[in-house]
Write a structure and sequence with these properties.
CATH topology of the largest domain: Rossmann fold
Radius of gyration: 32 Å
Shape: elongated
Largest sheet: 6 strands, mixed
CATH architecture of the largest domain: 3-Layer(aba) Sandwich
Strand content: 15-25%
Structural class: alpha/beta
Strand order of the largest sheet: 5-4-3-6-7-12
Number of helices: 11
CATH class of the largest domain: Alpha Beta
Number of strands: 13
Oligomer: single chain
Order of helices and strands: EHHHEEHEEHHEHEEEEEHEHEHH
CATH superfamily of the largest domain: von Willebrand factor, type A domain
Distance between the termini: 53 Å
Helix content: 25-40%
Length: 351
């Protein structure tokens, strides 16, 4: 299987395609102008040295040469020799808000499902980092300890729903404490070392009613743990749906009979991120905003997390590069016009 070290450079092939289209357009335009000047049967007398075949050959060589050059720049690699090496990465704890307010549909399909998509997007951009999962509402618990098995992580994420915790509310501070536990903080059997290689990502609508989440984030930051927050919801808010046997039966209402509306508390989420020396983003544009969180994690220190098997590829850029050089040299050596002294018609004695 061929693997490219720099796959983004393959977009340069589009430029080659534009170059070919421009060449075809110029040839057709030139032919049209010649027809306006004289009958096509006179072209052989008016331009006796012109060779259409030479032009086509030169263009074909140029295209093959440029395509090969782009492929060489992308550095094709083959082989998958497995080697054992040291795996380095950061530790990332992801805290999921599973309170009933996460069922609100002000962002589609709802806040919880969008949270899952955001986390899967983050995981797809991590490389060698260990990930743990914490779910919280009025209380919290560790759903999955630190692991580099991203497939298992995705399976756990799919199982998350708002019925996992019966105690309703939003205790972000408690969730941050549980996330610290996944790093070994507070474990009497494990020596704690402050290292700038750990991060906590809190995904919530920010409606914190149970504890002081800002103080918890500040405490984590004092232990060199970065706390980032991702806001789920809108400023306008939305009612909280009620479900029975998986079917929506209406919306939640208070004792006065009014429909309960939940709004994202962006101010609290910003304060948590600021106290935790992290970044806050809003889950509106997934690709653009989440990259800020991933970038913050990438700038953390990378610690050794043990030995692992890696696929080692061997570069094969020299072969397409050789083809590119050969084709481009031939393209230069071949002239567009016929050579009057040395040409195939004279050699074969054709008129």
């Amino acid at each position: 299987m061929i693997h490219f070290e720099h796959p983004k450079l393959l977009w340069l092939l589009v430029v080659v395609g534009v170059f070919v289209a421009l060449w075809v357009w110029l040839r057709l335009r030139r032919k049209h102008k010649l027809r306006m000047f004289a009958d096509s049967g006179m072209f052989g007398r008016l331009i006796p040295d012109e060779s259409i075949s030479r032009s086509i050959i030169k263009m074909a060589l140029a295209v093959v040469g440029l395509v090969s050059l782009v492929v060489a720049l992308a550095n094709p690699q083959v082989g998958s020799k497995m080697v054992k090496g040291e795996q380095k990465g950061s530790d990332v704890a992801i805290c999921f808000d599973v309170s009933n307010s996460m069922l609100a549909e002000d962002i589609k399909p709802n806040r919880l499902e969008r949270s899952k998509r955001v986390v899967n997007n983050i995981i797809s951009k991590l490389g060698g980092d260990r990930v743990s999962l914490v779910v919280f509402a009025g209380s919290s618990f560790i759903q999955m300890p630190l692991t580099t098995d991203y497939n298992a992580t995705r399976m756990f994420i799919e199982q998350i729903d708002c019925e996992m915790i019966s105690t309703q509310g939003t205790a972000i501070g408690d969730a941050i404490g549980k996330a610290m536990e996944t790093f070994g903080y507070g474990d009497v059997d494990q020596k704690w070392e402050k290292r700038n290689s750990r991060a906590i990502i809190v995904i919530s609508d920010g409606e914190n009613f149970e504890d002081d989440a800002v103080s918890a984030a500040a405490q984590a930051a004092s232990e060199k743990v970065v706390v980032c927050t991702i806001g789920m919801g809108s400023d306008e808010g939305a009612p909280i749906p009620r479900y029975k046997n998986g079917i929506k039966t209406g919306y939640k209402y208070d004792r006065s009979g009014n429909t309960v509306t939940t709004r994202m508390d962006e101010k609290t989420l910003r304060e948590i991120a600021k106290a935790g020396d992290g970044v806050y983003v809003r889950a509106g544009n997934i690709n653009a905003e989440v990259d800020k969180v991933v970038d913050r994690i990438e700038h953390l220190e990378k610690d050794s997390s043990g030995k692992a098997m890696f696929a080692e590829y061997e570069s094969r850029y020299m072969y397409p590069l050789l083809v590119a050089v050969a084709c481009l040299l031939l393209e230069i050596l071949i002239f567009e016009r016929r050579n009057r002294k040395f040409n195939l018609d004279k050699i074969l004695k054709r008129k």
